[in-house]
Amino acid sequence: MNHDDALKRAAADARTMGDAPEFASFAAWLRGRGTAGASHAMAAGLNGAWTRRLVKFSALWALVELPVAYWSAADDLERAALAVSTLIWLAIVFRVLKGGATARGVFVFLCALSVLAVAPALPAEYANFRLAFWLSLVECVVKCGLFVVFVSRYIAMEP
């Protein structure tokens, strides 16, 4: 296909897109609402029992990892940072479970960021500290699952 054919096809597609349905906005997803047809997506979202359990498990897992992280911390400043970060994570989880829209967005972002930060270090942890490897692996799986659940909920919203 040459450039002129591609341009004609794009112009034809643009003319037919005038009747495209209006999709739910990201802000509506954060509030837990969507369009009228989004009830199926809502059932698969945070309102689902398994999603709530997975969110609660992420908070529990942060508490399970804390003693091992304390044990391997280099100094008191690092231990304080671990305590503060765990408290912040628990507060975010609490707000997500209460239905906080901003907390849900922050939660999804931190899940993705956590996986991107921890996953590259897994081979080194496996070679040097097996207990930390298994704890980090479970954390990555849980947070990756949560990210997929929340993002697929947004994608599944229908007009």
Automatic annotation (TrEMBL):
Name of the featured protein: Uncharacterized protein
Membrane-spanning intervals of the chain: 54-73, 79-97, 104-122, 134-156
Organism name: Paraburkholderia unamae
Keywords: Membrane, Transmembrane, Transmembrane helix
